[in-house]
Structure formats: structure tokens, C-alpha cells
TrEMBL record:
GO terms for cellular component: cytosol. It comes from Sellimonas catena. Its cofactor is Mg(2+). This is Molybdopterin molybdenumtransferase. SUPFAM superfamilies: Molybdenum cofactor biosynthesis proteins.
């Protein structure tokens, strides 16, 4: 790239878009990057205040901003340019599509409903290089087809190839060269609901918990294959868990009986089913008395506290998408939810576009 006087730019190739702004009428490129300047263009360029222009001049070891952006795209999305070709101008790979590079910038968009995963360590390594940037949504966030996932750009008009090579090497050192971003699509699941509590079992009160879960599960590819109402006896709940698992349930949700009252025996019932308890309790409000466990074959069994019934967003909303995307949750990950784990119960809920669980 070199700097030339506009009057001397005839025949030169523009390195970037030239924007024209006319108040209340227009804001946009009057000439696109790559345009070859003609004699007739010069008065127009001068009229938009461009007395000097950056024009393209290939230099050894230097990359155009769009070439650098394509490398960032590959670091985020994975795959080579050939593997990711789609409709000529858009790249679709790993359930996400990429916009055409423009002014050194590329955006990624979800091509399916699922769970966004972000390698935070690798992302930090790239953003620490300077002269380049990648901004993403939070990881472990549920996304819908069409949602914007990330934007990346090279800051200067040209960048050293060695600098882009260092960025790729940093990711290689961090995670072996795996893509920084990935989407785990939601999988079709079979679920069962077990309502616990003598007050419901004996008909003293109406079960208002199950309809809440049916509504939440209805937003995902989940088939509810059974529902049981059990007394507070742990052996009855355990029997129901094992029965539903035997009938093919991938997910068993036990409601109620999660506090420390003498009659609340759901955690014991889940333990007696042979499930591996990941955590009983989570640093999230609402949802502190939540229990997550997995069977040896991978099915998830959860104990849901009463807040899931009456609070709009709880720990259940944070964990459910991960279970439906076959992304196992660890005790360490649950412990990390403390920062951001306080739902502010906003008058208008904007979850997941808020700080809850982030």
C-alpha cells in the first residue's frame, strides 16, 4: 500500500471503500475497495474530502486487511477457504456462516439452533497480538439460527504475514489449532418428569410444576415420554427414575423435595438410582438447591428446586441447553457460575441477552 495525491491516482487500485455522507440523504461507499480510479473519479474523490488516497501496492510479506480477516475467520471457524466455500461470497462451516470480508471485517452467523462454545484461552491469545481483534458472544450461550456470533477484523489496512502467522501459532499452542468457536446443535431427546411430594400425591394441592417444565421443554426438540407423581418415600422416586430410564428417557427431571426439610428426600432418591452426583447445590440464585447427576450411560437426572416453578429464569435455564447439546457439565463449571449467577429479576426479561449466568 502506498499514499498518493488524488490528482495523481488515475489507474490506481483503491485499498479501501470511500464513504460519502450527505446529511439526511445518504451514507455509504461512493467507491468500493478494489475500484480502479479513472480521470472522471478524481473530482468526485476531491468532493468527499479525499485529497490523498491509499492505493494498493503489493509488498513482500504484507497482507491486505481482507486477507488478514480471512485468517481470523479460519482461526474462529476452522476449515480452509476451499472447505468453507458457499455461494461464492459466504463461507458456511461448523454450523456457522461467514460474511464476505469488507474493510477488513468478517461476521459469523449461526446456521442452526444450539449451544455456542468459545475457547476463551485461545481467544485471549489472538486478541493479545495487537492490530487484530475478535469479539464474540459469551460461551455456553444458547443461540438460534440467524443469531450473530462474532465479529473480527484486522485494524490497519495492511498487516504483516508474520503477525498473522504468530496468531495462528498462539492458537496452536493453546488448543492444538482447534477452532475458537463451535456450535453444538441441540439433539432430539426423550424426557420424563417425576413430581414428588405427599401434598400432590394425595391430591391436597394441584401440580403446577409440571406445566412449567412442559412449556420450557417445548422450546427444544424434546419428547416427554412419561410423568409420574410420587410420595415423599425415596424408594418410590428411585423406582420411577429407573423405570423411565428403562423406557428410553435421556433426561429425568425430579421436581420438589430438594430442601433440607425431613420430608425432602429427592436427593437421596436420585443417589440411590446409581446416578453420579455432579453437584447438589449451585452458586446461582434462583436455583441454589439444584442437583445435577448423570447415569453411567450418559442420561442426565436432575433435582429441581421449587424456584424453577415460579421464577422466570433459574439455574435450570443455564444447564438445560448444555444437556440438550450433549455437553457434559462439571462441578468446576457450576462453581464458576457464582460471578453472574445472580438473576436481577428485571421487569422485562431479556435473557439470554443479559449478564445472568455469564
Amino acid at each position: 500500500m502506498k499514499l498518493v495525491r488524488t490528482e495523481d491516482a488515475e489507474g490506481c487500485i483503491l485499498c479501501h471503500d470511500i464513504t460519502q455522507i450527505i446529511k439526511d440523504k445518504k451514507k455509504g461507499p461512493v467507491f468500493r475497495k478494489g475500484h480502479i480510479v479513472t480521470r472522471e473519479d478524481i473530482p468526485v474523490l476531491l468532493s468527499v474530502g479525499k485529497e490523498n488516497l491509499y492505493v494498493w501496492e503489493q509488498e513482500e510479506g504484507m497482507l491486505h486487511e481482507d486477507e488478514g480477516a480471512e485468517i481470523l475467520r479460519r482461526i474462529c471457524q476452522g476449515g480452509s477457504s476451499a472447505e468453507a466455500a458457499f455461494d461464492g461470497a459466504v463461507k458456511c462451516f461448523r454450523y456457522m456462516s461467514a460474511s464476505e470480508a469488507k474493510e477488513g471485517k468478517i461476521e459469523l452467523t449461526a446456521e442452526t439452533d444450539g449451544l455456542l462454545k468459545v475457547d476463551s484461552g485461545a481467544l485471549y491469545r489472538v486478541n493479545s497480538q495487537g492490530e487484530m481483534m475478535i469479539a464474540t458472544r459469551h460461551g455456553n450461550t444458547e443461540v438460534k439460527k440467524g443469531d450473530k456470533l462474532a465479529g473480527m477484523r484486522v485494524i490497519p489496512l495492511v498487516i504483516g504475514k508474520d503477525k498473522m502467522d504468530r496468531a495462528e501459532k498462539a492458537v496452536q499452542e493453546e488448543n492444538g489449532g482447534a477452532p475458537i468457536l463451535s456450535i453444538l446443535p441441540f439433539r432430539a431427546k426423550k424426557a420424563a418428569i417425576i413430581t414428588t411430594g405427599s401434598e400432590v400425591y394425595k391430591g391436597r394441592i394441584k401440580d403446577t410444576f409440571t406445566p412449567v417444565l412442559e412449556e420450557k421443554l417445548g422450546h427444544y426438540p424434546v419428547e416427554i415420554i412419561g410423568h409420574a407423581v410420587c410420595d415423599d418415600k425415596p424408594e418410590m422416586v428411585t423406582e420411577a427414575i429407573l423405570r423411565f430410564l428403562g423406557e428410553g428417557a435421556d433426561l429425568v427431571l425430579c421436581t420438589g423435595g430438594m430442601s433440607v426439610d425431613p420430608d425432602d428426600r429427592t436427593p437421596l432418591a436420585i443417589k440411590n438410582s446409581g446416578a453420579r452426583i455432579v453437584s447438589y447445590g449451585a452458586p446461582v440464585l434462583p436455583g441454589a438447591m439444584f442437583l445435577l447427576s448423570y447415569m453411567e450411560e450418559g442420561q442426565a437426572v436432575m433435582g429441581l428446586p421449587g424456584c424453577v416453578m415460579y421464577a422466570k429464569r433459574t439455574i435450570f435455564d443455564l444447564v438445560l441447553p448444555r444437556v440438550l447439546a450433549d455437553d457434559p457439565v462439571t462441578a468446576e463449571e457450576l462453581a464458576h457460575l457464582g460471578e453472574g449467577g445472580l438473576c436481577l429479576n428485571c421487569p422485562v426479561c431479556t435473557y439470554p441477552n443479559c449478564g445472568f449466568g455469564k
